[in-house]
Known about the structure:
The chain is of the alpha+beta class. Among the domains are: 9-134 and 152-224, no CATH class; 509-663, no CATH class; 669-807, CATH 3.30.1330.60. The strands form 3 sheets. The chain has a 30-stranded mixed β-sheet that branches. Strands 33, 34, 35, 36 and 37 form a 5-stranded mixed β-sheet that branches.
Amino acid sequence: MAATRSFLRHKLIKFLLALYIGLFMIIWLVSSPIIKAQLTPYLAQEKLILAKESSIRYNPFLSKLTLSDISLSSEDEPSVAVFSLKNFEIKLTLFQLLFDEINIAQLQLNDGFIHIKQTDETLYVAGININKEATDTNKAPAENSEQLSFPYQLVLPKLLLENFEIALEKKSAHGKEKLHHLKLERIEVNELTATLIEQQANIVLQAQIDDTELNFSAQAHFQQGEGKIISDLALNNYPLVKLQPYLEPVSSLSGQLSLNSKQAIDILKSGLTITIESAQLSNKNLAAKVNQQELTLASFVQNFSNVIVTVEQDELTNIQGTSDIKLAQASINQEDNSKQLLSFDNLLMEDISFHFIEQPSIKIADLIIDDIAASKLNDQQQLPALVTLKQFSINDINLTKTNLAVNEIILDTLQSDVIVLKDKVIANLIKLAQEESAAQAQASQPNEQQLAQQPSQQQSAIDNAFTFTLNKFALVNDNKVVLTDNSVEPVVTRTLNIEKLDLGRISNDAASQEKTPFHFAGKSNKYAHFNLTGHIQPFVDVPNYHVEGYLKELSLVALSSYLKKAASLEVKTGQLSTDLNINLIGDELDGNMLLHLQGLETGIVDSHEAGSLIEQGALPLNMALGMLKDRNGAVELDVPVSGSTSDPKFGLSSILTLITQKAIMSATQDYLITTFVPYANIVSVAITAGEFALKLRFDDVDYQVKQIEPESAQQKYMQDFIALMQDKKDTKVTICAISVPEDIGLPAGKALTDPANIKRLKELGEQREHAFKDYVIEHGKIESSRLLLCAPKIDSSKGAKPRIALSV
């Protein structure tokens, strides 16, 4: 009997075991078709098709769900998958439920794909309308919810996802546009534990976003909604062209962006704090086009350290940290790079510290820009840039909401070439191409409400006035401005060499009443020089300006081009020196100018021929000037300057009165004879018809055809001339070269009319004058201010010889 019961017991156990195994086998076998059948109606609602080869099986023996060869496609495009998954496995340890633990022993995904499509109206994820899902969720009736009670702990020792791809596509009227492609090469989550009270995990991500390597790792720990995330992020050489669709003003964009950072995020119930230990944002080969301007930048690097960002109650309450910036090979171009608005080789901003706690503040130790060029045409003309600068530097910058303070601004080796065309347009000045719509133009017109608000806005601006302070501004090393003016005849070329330009402390702070000193000195062309000092006070209630100094040896021949149209006269020779001391208080001008004119002679416009009546001083202006000349042939005028700058009629003391007073003072023939007879071999004294005063005349120095430098034939004359100049230290002489047609291979005896030939002969004459003056200065140690240059002449008469004429 006992044996029978034992037999039956074994039979029952085997039956139950077989039933258990059989039932589980049936579940395992039919799980896939049953699950697929249940999914089909739901997928049909979304117009999705599940591939026949897709398999979804549940293994009750191992408590394991396996998905393989999953493929979803849209009914509109059955051949194109919107979601696919090669393999998905999740395994649970069910007996752990007895200990209030959901233990996922295995969770793995391999070789997946999901398609995301954005249209103008909605967003589709794996073919499912996300906007519709959100709308349905919003329509669901609200239920009274109580705090969840979930006693279980989720434990996931390891989650592994490999080779999962996400494609983002945009569909518009222009067709399909691939925006982004994300390939998750590996996502690994380790040691994940989670309850309603506490969660923690370690995450490692290796991916490619738009074929760019992305690495991310993080450690997270939360307790009762508060916690900390420590992470590292690295993105290398991301193609910026992928960001261009989101930047509406930018029509084209290229370059590679990189980001490396280490940060920690502290999450509290009141807000969060982000601490960036170190970060580097860099860019290579940036090119961006906005309207008709294009920016190119070879490299950009910005480093951050010790950055803290605090958000409390959804408001940004604090940003602080340090940074530095480096840029290399930057340029802003216009019209397909044919016009370069601005370029520089390097830009460096060092020791940047910033904080936005109550009063925002930014401090920059140094801002240095090297090799700047502005307004340069890249065409066949190859015109020089309007402005070039070896280095621009600013140090100790402190910027707040209401104040900008700068210690020094230094410009090193400023070079400017200004080329004026015949129509008064600056040839190498590039105008910005602007596109302003009618709406923008209309928006720029103030309406009545805006006009009514202006008084209160102006008062607010006064109450919140922005102040700036600069301790020093200076130009250093070689600074030069070259003006080439083609709008006048002859063409004017003027070079200004700035030897010193300093500006002292200046501020628009109402509490600052100090004067700002300045010093401006330099040379114009070869011999003219100036030195000006003074002070300015532009921001006080009554502005105050003062300048004093001098301008010496300015050749007036260069001004002749600008006098032609105004007075139908041209300056044949002359030199200006002046001492000035002038004050401007408000709009009231007061001061004094001492003018010294040496050898000033005028003539009819375009009289190039030597020996004409004009050269003999037959004009009334020349006669008046002759009355003013002292025994050395100079005119000195002490001119008081006064009046209001708001009334242009403020004037100089009467010139006619000065002429009358000076007319009775002329040199005598005896004085000239007594003074210069010892040098009778090179000078002679004569009374010229039509002249008020006696004239001292030097004999001409004959030259050979095409000769430039003084040679042995002129040796005796040069020695005697140098001896006279060394003996008579107050004598000043005008040097005037006279060229002949043979100098440029043309026959004599016929007046020249071709402007090109006249220009060539004048240029040759200028070379002779400079060579003569340089010889006298070098061998006789004569001051350059005693040797004046004139506009070269031409003698086209038969038998004429090239020569240099000297006069006092």
